[in-house]
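Let's practice the habit of predicting before peeking. Look at the sequence and jot down your guess about where helices and strands might fall. Then scroll down.
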Amino acid sequence: TKHGKATFSFSAPNIWKRFPESPMLRTHQIRSDQDQDISIRYSITGVGADQPPNEVFSIDPELGKMFVTKPLDREHRSSYHLRAHAVDMNGNQVENPIDLYIFVIDMNDNRPEFKNQVYNGSVDEGSRPGTYVMHLSAFDADDNTTANGMVRYRILSQTPHSPIPNMFTINSETGDIVTVAPGLDREKVSQYTIIVQATDMEGNLNFGLSNTATAIITVTDINDNPPMLTSRTFSGEVPENRVDLVVANLTVIDADQPHSPNWNAVYRIISGDPSGHFTIRTDPISNDGMVTVVKPVDFEMNRAFMLTAVVSNQAHLASGIQSSLQSTAGVTISVQDVNEPPYFPTNPKHIRFEEGVPAGTSLTTFSASDPDRLQMQQIIRYLKLSDPADWLSINGTNGQIITTAILDRESVYVKNNIYEATFLAIDNGSPEASGTGTLQISLIDINDNPPALVPRESQICERMNKNVNGVNITAADADTDPNAGPFVFELPNYPTSIRRNWTISRISGDYARLALRYQVYLKPGMYEVPIVVSDSGNPPLSNRSVIKVKVCPCDEHGDCTTLGAVVAAGLGTGAIISILICIIILLCMVLLFVVWIKRREKERQTKQLLIDPEDDVRDNILKYDEEGGGEEDQDYDLSQLQQPDSLDHIISKPPGVRRVDERPIIPESQYPIRPVVPHPGDIGDFIHEGLRAADNDPTAPPYDSLLVFDYEGSGSTAGSVSSLNSSSTGDQDYDYLNDWGPRFKKLADMYGGGAED
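Done guessing? Here is the structure:
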């Protein structure tokens, strides 16, 4: 092997699988030309020998025979590259290493595998032969350059067999499924199930491996079935003057896919309804056509309608499909006569009248008509529905309108010179029906309102000159032109002082100026000036009005001063001075009262109590300047001053004997509310008030009253007062009690060695 390169081929994977009893297979022998002279040792290196995967190949070190020690899998590794080595017994290299390329020969050990076990496809119904449906593919892990990996397809079965068992075929090499025969009809067969087999070895069933998958083919709907009405004629009834009412129902049959555009029905009226009284709406659930009234019908105009309706689908019919004769039907709608309300031919009705017409004047006849001409003659009666000012009445038989009061254009019920009233017309049908009519009266103005002076009050300076203006006046008239302005303003001839002191000058047609005559002086005060105002009516109306003019002293700007305004109000100088004096006196009285209150408060705070300050016990906290006696003065038995724990000795007393210093044993009751603690300055009143409350309370113990203890009683837990003794066994000097202050004066008198002893 001087070539330095050798190539070997091994094939064994399936042999190891089929013949597990032959774990190794001798494949080739490597020999050196020098093995006749020296002993040679052979070895191999590379992937599959001393590199992972290890020990797939081995070699006899003496003979150079190579072996496969593990099964080979071409799909895992298709080739190996090894190097063979030859050395002598000392490990010296005898030959250069040679490359060994080992190729694993493929065997058919893998079945074709489909990616999915179930494939879904679709095809339109009515498709022509050769129409593509869907594609299936299978993968074979074997070498696809050999027959082991060449897959072929075929259809094993078709379910159902309608209309023929072989509606589809599959391309054996590509896996494309196409139609092979006509006759696909979704309304008959909506779905086909096909079993497809994939076989390797180029489809050789004897040597190849196979696998199967399921193809589900859905036949999709096309609009190949026109909608058909279930009847050639339909009928219905409709009451007149009704809308949005279903009067007939058209039923339809469509074999296409429900609730799809191929199935949804669309209805149209093609004749018999030129005025558009009806429409046909589709019921989204049942697909029926609902003939609906959209415009009121009149029995007197049309007693019946003969409609022609046609139905179609939302989607157009498929190519080559013709409309059915049953897509058109006649619809007869009968109109039912009902009692219709009377109506006013002219509504609203306009009339014109002058205001001020007297009551009882006939204005017009507001009559109604009965639309039920084909019924027997009906009687119509009239009623008033709305008359805001109550000016009108209507004749219940013929509808004549008569005034019941004077019409006044200036009334609040008249808007824009128009008065409006409404009336009812009621027939005697069954049931009764009524209609409403509106009467609008345009009132023409007459001169019936005199003008009124504006303003009614004003003020003017007491001295007038040519440079100061007077009072501008005008007039208000409820009438309109030409019965209102321009106005004429005049001063009356009586009293004569009016024309002597005042003058009126015209400014414009509606305004004039009232002023004092030049160099006329009037005392400050309120003056009533009468003025006669006349309008421009025919004949004109006049009104004597009075304007109150306040004459007052003015400042340099021509405005009334404050004092002048008071004087003008009618108060003299003496009255004003009197008012000012009263105000000053009132302020002084208020000031004196405040001073008296402050002084009384100060006296109350400095007022001495009823008792000596040293004996003042109103405070809860007392200050003692002296420490007091020693411990010998504090050794008291305080238990004698406490309330007994038991009352048995009191309860067991004989009747008629009771200590007045004991609390009475009677049921507790609610004490009356005593007044709050008063101001310290009224402590005397407080003591007497408390004493009075205690005397009037039968349940209160006599703690706050003066008691005379002339009988000690028996059964007391305390010993006799005479038993009180000093804790000291010997004589003791109590003279130091005199030094403790006035609070211990009584004890000093009792125990001390004073002069009273």
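How did you do? The longest helix spans residues 573-606.
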